[in-house]
Amino acid sequence: MFWVKILLIAVVVCAALWIEATRGRRYHPNWERFCTYQYAHRGLHNAARQIPENSMAAFRLAKEQGYGIELDVHLTADGNLAVIHDKSLKRTAGVDVEISQLTVAELKQYELEGTQEKIPLLEEVAELFQNGPPLLVELKADYFDVRELVAKTVHTLDQYQVNYCIESFHPGVLRWLMRHRPDICRGQLSQDFCRERGELKFWQAFCMTTLVPNCLTRPDFISFHHKHRWVPAVWLCRWLHGLPIFCWTVKDPQEMKKLEKKGYLIIFEGFVPNLEYQKVS
Predict the structure, then answer these.
(1) In the chain, which residues have pLDDT < 70?
(2) Domain extents for the chain?
(3) CA-to-CA distance for 208 and 188, rounded, in angstroms?
(4) Which of 124, 113, 121 is nearest to 50 (CA)?
(5) How far is it, in rounded angstroms, from Cα 38 to Cα 36?
(6) H helix intervals, the chain
(7) What CATH code is assigned to 28-280?
(8) How far is CA 75 from the centre of its chain?
């Protein structure tokens, strides 16, 4: 009986510590600028119409339709900010070279998905979206020191009249923002890495799935794979801590309607919600 009591106490203490660790920062003063939009994942891209993902054509179309956009940012070899998802150009441009090895001049030589679209820079996108829908900027950081990436991103975006928030899988990005730019709305990206671990070590997958890094970053929102939204950490963040939850990446309009009715924010891909809503309503 003694050891049973000890075990119960240990479980209660661990649960209390975990609950405290997953807490975020509630009620960001600028949140109202972001919560009324749906976000086009990498822009309103459409391969059949020769509109590649993360291209200026995809971003222009999203802006014309009144959608916010989710976009991805990498550092180039000369310290500029390229808007592209993969760290390599193999999938999108057919060349097996990494963004971090290219200067902007070299980067602009490549075309996206066999079109005439070039890989945009962050300042090009920011200029397009001045006084327009907001940007959900994902910083792609698979290295330890993220300071240059985050600092240059916020400095660039601050030069334009654009509403933006920043998200990343890398807790170091959010930690930098918390310490140096607490005015910027920040979000933790994650999924059930215990189920789909990829290249992460077990302890990393466990921490990211349980959102333990929140204790160091205190995010304003969580952005989680929509099929994994039932993991306990997401439930805690939403219902106990009151944090908004983005669901990525929703590819079915009916699923999107269901999620929105439940209060989730949406990052969508593969359809235009206004048109599809008319079809399924």
Answers:
(1) 275-281
(2) 28-280
(3) 9
(4) 113
(5) 7
(6) 2-21, 56-65, 90-93, 104-107, 122-128, 147-157, 171-180, 202-210, 214-217, 232-235, 253-261, 273-280
(7) 3.20.20.190
(8) 16
Query: What pLDDT does residue 281 have?
Result: 37
Partners of 138 in the beta sheet?
72, 167
Q: What is the pTM of this model?
A: 0.94
- Give me the residue label for tokens 């309009």: 253
3-state secondary structure 143-204: CCCCHHHHHHHHHHHCCCCCCEEEEECCHHHHHHHHHHCCCCCEEEEECCCCCCCCCCCHHH
Size (the chain), residues: 281
Residues with active-site annotation: 41, 85
Residue 116, token pair as written in the block: 């005439």
Around 168, how many Cα atoms within 13 Å sit in the side-chain half-sphere? 24
Query: What pLDDT, on a 0 to 100 scale, did the predictor assign at position 209?
Result: 97
> Quick one: pLDDT at residue 275?
67
Q: How far apart (Å, rounded) are the C-alpha atoms in residues 34 and 87? A: 27
Contacts of 193 (CB under 8 A, 6+ apart): 200, 204, 205, 206, 208, 209
